[in-house]
């Protein structure tokens, strides 16, 4: 470690965010540019280089966290970059988007604030691009084998990069007009600027990965054609089948899925649309769902100039401190967290009736009511107990001109015919069935990411892509030197 007493002499300092009043007027990333470098070496010094670094186990990628913390503390950025890239294809994505289960597993977090692992990671990632160290790594020779990757989210991109570097000819198919999946159209610009995605795609193209956009596999390209053209196929389409809320009034205009709303806002930032057709401007917005997608809708609605924004969470408000009985270290704890979007909503008082920031906790929707034109105008809700039983006399009504459903996803979208066309099976959870080697029952067809694991974190998505790439390489050549960080059955740490 750089400083054996660093964890005793330095407190935790996070990457400062720009003032709320400034950042809600634009779509730039929320953090102060350049503010990490003055503090990051000191923060890396807080790493204790534990004999048993639980941050490794908490991270499915197996990131070499103590190693690159020590290297950053010593200002050896090039070697730190090398160690970071050894386990993670896209640290500029994870450093911005991952909720950092590694920090929950930090040994220092037993009785102190954890090391700012995520901030150290993104500092290294940004240094990689600033110094020009992300050079393309094309293979020395081609294997003569071809692989189709269906889906261009983090799983598909990670698998494609690994397989291309192994010498296979890889084509990535994406149904949208641009590559990136949820990274492109699900993640708001203020959370991760698309410049980070574009740079990585440029590197992958220079390495030899080929991209085909606006192709819906199953319709534009049939499953039979896909299997005939390629020696192996990886299905990495994500879990995009959103959950519904079948309540009275659901048919009213103005009630939309979060993933109908967010892509349109991103298309505005891309310059494809002059304005969001579902804009929150001047409207009373209610977001149903307390997760990250709901928070993304919240930050987007605030920037669009909503009259009010309220987020409903059916769970109780978490404690600010870890519950050592329910969530003992090193599992990821259920604690009250203030995202950038929630900080903005709190400071701007977007939801006067909320319990905290913009959130109403223990809130369950009963029905929607509308006007004579068939547009939603009110949302009726009730408070529930920890068993989700309605509490008598707690019903209330919120004004609602725009309702966004952010209830998560149940599995792969089957409307394109890919699952049926390939003859794939679903398991009891409604996701793609596969064996211990990421293979489906269809010879040469593999499945990875949220489509097979279920809705998860970006680090799990990248780990799935890397592991599936190793399995495909082994299938094509009889062996592999590619890393395989996880098994299909691996799951996050739980109590």
Protein traits:
495 residues; alpha/beta; Fumarate Reductase Iron-sulfur Protein, Chain B, domain 2; FAD/NAD(P)-binding domain; 3 domains; 5-stranded parallel β-sheet; 19 helices; metal-binding; iron-sulfur cluster binding; oxidoreductase activity, acting on the CH-NH2 group of donors, NAD or NADP as acceptor; amino-acid biosynthesis; iron
Question: Helices, strands, pairings?
Answer:
Elements: H1 6-9, H2 20-23, H3 37-44, H4 54-58, H5 65-73, H6 77-85, H7 91-97, H8 101-104, H9 117-130, E1 146-150, H10 154-165, E2 169-173, H11 182-185, H12 195-207, E3 210-212, H13 223-229, E4 232-235, E5 255-257, H14 258-270, E6 284-288, H15 292-304, E7 308-313, H16 340-348, E8 359-361, E9 363-370, E10 376-383, E11 396-399, E12 402-405, H17 418-422, E13 445-447, H18 450-453, H19 458-477
Parallel strand pairs: 1-2, 1-4, 2-3, 4-13, 5-12, 6-7, 6-12, 7-8
Antiparallel strand pairs: 9-10, 10-11
